[in-house]
Specification:
Helix content is 36%, strand content 20%. By secondary structure, the chain is an alpha+beta fold. The protein has helices at residues 3-13, 45-51, 54-76, 120-129, 165-195, 199-206, 216-223, 241-250, 301-311, 319-327, 339-346; strands at 19-21, 24-26, 80-81, 87-88, 104-108, 111-115, 134-141, 153-162, 212-215, 230-233, 236-239, 255-258, 281-286, 289-296, 332-338. The chain contains eleven helices and 15 strands.
């Protein structure tokens, strides 16, 4: 983003006093574009509300900016885009320690399989044919009940690249800054008029050097004085949403947390110390909380098998993955960014269910007599 662009947005913010409207901070001197709040409706009239909404026209334009910028950024770093299947029998959320969701089973042409909860394993596979790294933007499916920050079907920007966790953190930091800059350049004026504030995008772009970084232990110490910020599950701990948000308030609005408890993250994340107590996993918090999840992978089959046993995973369900590590050992790291969560932050919105152009929330479980949704 040019210095002239950031200067323009800095000047436009002077003298504005945000107020509270429908639970969101906006500038009272401009018109605020709001979503039609029709995501849970199976009424045919919702179709007109969607298609006639300036909110979704704006979201559609942001989709295009994200797609083009992702392609340009990844290509500039030597990554290749790969076409990958949306079904898999190798899920990243097995029923085991470190998994926080359920896979979605389907039958396709008589074959029992799953809808992909992530392209991570396929992208690790892809790094063996595209050694400079690879990326996708595709749907992901998880057996989660939608709420203000979760969707059962969502858009996932993912990449796997050669190198360790520090290389990954640098890549992702540059990526989200590139997205914020491209959005300011391509839609900054519209966003300022529609939502009243783009200062958060400017601050991300203008952050010099690294975002704030803490180990998980350091982060826990930062918020542990407040009840309900850290959830303890025997041998492992994790942040609650309250904890994530308090951490951002006390440290920075853009903060990396890494080296989580090993049993709190999935088995495929590399050990962060010799004892295996921590993992080389890293989450980037901004906006509503965790927007990017990432980590370094086990480079060898030996370490992978140790982690599989530690997490209580059935090794037979990952036979090909282990064999790949044996035959083609490679140090890679990867990330997944929830595009819908990223757009919540861009739009300064508080309900992820308003983000998808076509909602899959609250659809009838049985096939309806009349199909009222696209």
């Amino acid at each position: 983003m040019s210095s002239a662009t950031t200067r323009t947005f800095r000047q436009s913010r002077r003298g504005s006093s945000p107020s509270r409207q429908k639970g969101r901070h906006v500038n009272p001197t401009v018109t605020t574009v709001e979503p039609p709040a029709s995501w849970g409706s199976n009424d045919l009239e919702a179709l007109a509300r969607y298609l006639g909404s300036p909110w979704y026209r704006l979201v559609g334009d942001l989709h295009d900016i994200i797609h083009v910028t992702t392609l340009r950024y990844a290509s500039s770093r030597g990554l290749k885009n790969l076409f990958l299947p949306v079904t898999t029998r190798t899920v990243t959320c097995p029923t085991a320690l470190g998994s926080d969701s359920e896979p979605v089973p389907v039958t396709v042409s008589g074959v029992n399989t799953y809808l992909a909860d992530s392209m991570q394993f396929a992208l690790e596979y892809g790094c063996r044919v595209a050694p400079g790294g690879c990326y996708t933007i595709m749907p992901s499916f998880r057996g989660e009940k939608p709420d203000e920050t979760h969707l059962g079907q969502y858009t996932h920007s993912e990449a796997e690249l050669p190198g360790g966790m520090n290389t990954l953190i640098e890549y992702v930091t540059g990526y989200v800054q590139a997205l914020a800059g491209a959005i300011l350049d391509g839609a900054g004026d519209r966003l300022a008029q529609a939502r009243g504030d783009v200062s958060h995008l400017v601050r991300m772009v203008e952050t010099k050097g690294k975002f704030a970084e803490l180990t998980f232990d350091e982060a826990v110490c930062t918020v542990a004085d407040v009840d309900g910020t850290v959830r303890k599950e025997g041998e492992w701990r994790t942040f609650t949403r309250k904890g994530e948000r308090l951490l951002m308030q006390r440290v920075s609005e853009f903060v990396w947390v890494h080296h989580f408890d090993s049993l709190a993250v999935p088995f495929y994340q590399a050990f962060g110390d010799e004892s295996g107590a921590t993992a080389k996993s890293a989450d980037l918090y901004f906006g509503m909380g965790e927007v990017v999840g990432s980590g370094e992978r086990h480079a060898s089959a030996e370490e992978l098998r140790k982690s599989i046993a530690l997490h209580g995973v059935n090794e037979q369900e990952y036979t090909w993955y282990i064999r790949m590590k044996e035959e083609f050992p490679m140090l890679t790291s990867g990330f997944g960014m929830g595009v819908d969560r990223f757009l919540m932050w861009v739009l300064k919105h508080d309900d992820i269910r308003d983000i998808p152009l076509i909602s899959r929330t609250a659809e009838p479980k049985s096939w309806p007599a009349s199909v009222t949704r696209p």
